[in-house]
Design brief:
The complex is a heterodimer of chains A (about 140) and B (about 400). Chain A is α/β, with parallel strands linked by helices and about 140 residues long. Chain A has 5 helices and 7 strands. Chain A starts with a helix and ends with a strand. Chain B has a 16-stranded antiparallel beta barrel with strand order 1-2-3-4-5-6-7-8-9-10-11-12-13-14-15-16. In chain B, strand 4 (about 95-105) and strand 5 form a beta hairpin. The chains are: A alpha/beta (about 140), B mainly beta (about 400).
Chain lengths: ~140, ~400
């Protein structure tokens, strides 16, 4: 295949959207939060809110990569993977913050959220949700 | 010279020794975050050198950083970043502590940092050495000039900061910074202060600095506005070739930057305007600069960018005509720079950039150009950069 065809295919394939994934937000069972909004999630995952309304610290976690991770970023944070990564690296390399802990798979996310007070994470709707609570996300009013 | 403070260079062996000393203690509780980046570039230019011997092409253009951060509690964090760079005679790969701080943040609305802190100046000053965080190779020189980088880069002191209502970030700070009068960037600043006359025994100190920055995420999603301002006192002195000492007490040297960035979908547009204010009437004038630019992400791999920026050494004399009676051409005091570039992200760790800059004037490199090479008398020139970065 000639170089130009390769370049064209690379550009084309890079633009194809990933299949949308159903994402659910999960919190530790000790957390009494009844619901969250998209803006709440943006503040929590973009370093602007660090405490629940109870006063407890928020411990946000992410998936390292994958369709569920990218679906969460697009649906709730209006970011793509690189924008989210760059946001946190900007804080990291300027001494202004440390990124959320990330996990390689959904089982690890569920296990961490289940045992960590104040934790919040996200997994696919099909994941085993034993030990965590799904928190509904409401539209911003 | 008595009273002169030298910039504290960190010996090359410091990094491994500190790592060996710190890692065991930091590993006791929460995880230690270790990140870093390495960049290597190539620069080529016509007519004039861009802070390195670029007219013949040069690989003297690299950066390396290692970052260690650790949370001891949810509201208590420490971090340090080691950094070395090379841009011609700037840096020469000497390892320095880029920043090192402790942060206590009991509330989202209020926190405090103590240590060596990167100065919030414009939207991008704190991240200017981290190539992976931007689309271009060089930030617009009119607002982020390489030559006076040390005068705004970082300081030792404290800052208070926070986020109000989730949309308004503030940071106020005070401290001082070490200046190295042998740094080529500051050497050229001294040469400008001395009206381009050669000198001996230079000295430059900063004893006072304070300032603040506000960044507002507007109701228009993706739009943020910023204002940053600082004031510092700088004492400089040289000895003229005839032996007469000359002092430059730049008290109340202040600078303001107004900033705008709008990101929507694959597009990002930005612009900043800056102006300096010098209390000392004996100086020939006050610099100012601005830029507009933007980038477009074609897909996850390819991004293109463009920028136009203008710098005026004397904001009330944009063509430098007042300088001509001194026997110097006006193009030495302004610089207009238009750039086009592309960034390619091969994966989450590797990226490559190419950038072309077409320039009129030497306002930001004039003293360096006069000091290091024969001046060609050509006001129009260009430079090209290629830069690869690995980060983790």
């Amino acid at each position: 295949m000639c170089l130009w065809k390769k370049l064209f295919c690379t550009v084309l394939l890079s633009n194809l959207p990933l299949a949308a994934q159903d994402v659910v937000m999960i919190i530790n069972p000790g957390n009494e939060t009844q619901s969250l909004t998209t803006k709440d999630l943006q503040k929590i995952y973009m370093n602007k809110r660090s405490r629940w309304s109870s006063g407890d610290h928020i411990v946000s976690v992410t998936l390292e990569s994958g369709a569920v991770h990218e679906s969460f970023l697009r649906k709730y944070l209006r970011k793509d993977k690189r924008q989210f990564s760059t946001f946190w690296k900007r804080l990291l390399f300027t001494g202004k913050g440390v990124p959320p802990t990330s996990f390689a798979n959904e089982e690890e996310v569920v296990a961490f959220v289940a045992k960590t007070p104040g934790a919040i994470g996200y997994v696919s709707a099909k994941a085993n949700l034993k030990g965590v609570v799904v928190v509904p996300i409401q539209n911003d009013s | 010279m008595a009273g002169m403070r030298k910039k504290r260079k960190v010996p090359g062996w410091t990094l491994p020794v500190l790592l060996l000393a710190w890692l065991p203690a930091w590993g006791q509780s929460r995880e230690l975050e270790v990140h870093g980046f390495v960049s290597q570039g190539y620069l080529d230019s016509s007519e004039h050198d861009f802070w390195a011997p670029t007219r013949g092409g040069t690989f003297e253009f690299s950066e390396i950083g290692l970052n260690l951060s650790k949370k001891f509690r949810d509201d208590l964090r420490v971090g340090i970043q080691f950094f070395a760079r090379d841009l011609g005679d700037l840096g020469n790969h000497e390892v320095e502590i880029d920043w090192a701080l402790g942060e206590y943040r009991p509330r989202d609305e209020f926190g405090i940092r103590i240590g060596k802190i990167k100065q919030p100046h414009g939207l991008y000053n704190q991240e200017r050495d981290v190539d992976l965080l931007r689309s271009q190779i060089f930030l617009p020189q009119s607002v982020y000039p390489e030559g006076t980088r040390e005068l705004v880069l970082a300081f030792q002191g404290l800052s208070i900061f926070g986020t109000l209502a989730g949309v308004l970030e503030y940071e106020f700070y005070t401290g001082s910074r070490d200046l190295d009068e042998e740094n080529p960037g500051l050497t050229t600043t001294l040469l400008v202060l001395n009206q381009f006359r050669p000198y001996l025994n230079p000295s430059m100190t900063n004893d006072s600095l304070y300032g603040g920055a506000l960044r507002w995420e507007t109701p228009l999603e993706g739009m943020r506005l910023g204002v940053s301002w600082h004031e510092q006192d700088i004492s400089a002195s040289v000895v003229q070739l005839n032996g007469i000492p000359q002092n430059f007490d730049l008290e109340g040297l202040s600078q303001i930057v107004l900033s705008m960035e709008y990101e929507t979908g694959s597009w990002m547009v930005n612009g900043e305007w800056t102006e300096n204010f010098v209390a000392d009437d004996s100086l020939p004038g006050e610099p100012a600069g601005w830029y507009v630019g933007g980038s477009y992400r074609i897909n996850n791999r390819f991004e293109v960018n463009a920028n136009h920026n203008e710098f005026y050494g004397f904001k009330d004399d944009k063509d430098g005509s007042a300088f001509e009676p001194l026997g110097l051409p006006g193009y030495l005091v302004f610089q207009k720079d238009t750039s086009l570039g592309v960034r390619v992200d091969f994966n989450d760790s590797w990226l490559l950039k190419v950038q072309y800059n077409q320039v009129e004037g030497l306002g930001l490199i004039s003293a360096y150009d006069l000091l290091n090479r024969d001046n060609t008398g050509e006001p129009d020139w260009h430079y090209v950069g290629v830069k690869a970065t690995y980060h983790f």
